[in-house]
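Thread: "does anyone have the structure for this chain?"

Original post by V.I.:
We have the sequence but no experimental structure in hand. Need at least a predicted one for the grant figures.
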Amino acid sequence: MPNAKVLESKKAIVDALADKIQGSTSVVFVDYKGITVAQDTELRNKFREAGVEYTVVKNTLTRFATNKVGYKEFDEVLNGTTSMACTSGDPIAPARIVSEFAKKNKNVLKIKGGIVEGQVQSIENLMAFGELPSKDALIAQVLGTFLAPISSLAFVLDQIRAQKEAGDAPAEAPAEA
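Reply from O.Q.:
Generated one for you, tokens below.
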């Protein structure tokens, strides 16, 4: 039986993990078996650039933490080598980075499961998030779509103005009798 000091430190770790899971917009659990040091360094740099915290976690303590915040779905997948990528920013960033990295590096990483905005997601959903652009890119695309009609109108009006200044204004159609 472990002594009280060890139990208290493990309880503190579980509490910290539970707080991190609950306070994140996205958490992805990853199997990192077979990754090289160079690949791990590259992956950590990508996570850091995206504002994602990436740590290797102990399965038992993580299982206690997920159960504490009400996610019992991860009891079966938290085994073997496990790391956790979480963020309070872009909710699809962890899954997108892991998916892209796994494709580029011959599947050295595998998503075990995850939570996005409070909802447990299937591995298929998390991998599909990997195909999406970042939240900022999606917002830019939507704004571009909103601006397209206004830009087209401005272009047409500019062309009409240029024609009038050049004296090439189209003749008006004759009035109907």
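V.I.: this helps a lot. Strands lie at 26-31, 53-56, 83-87, 110-116, 119-121.
O.Q.: and The CA atoms of residues 156 and 162 lie 10 Å apart.
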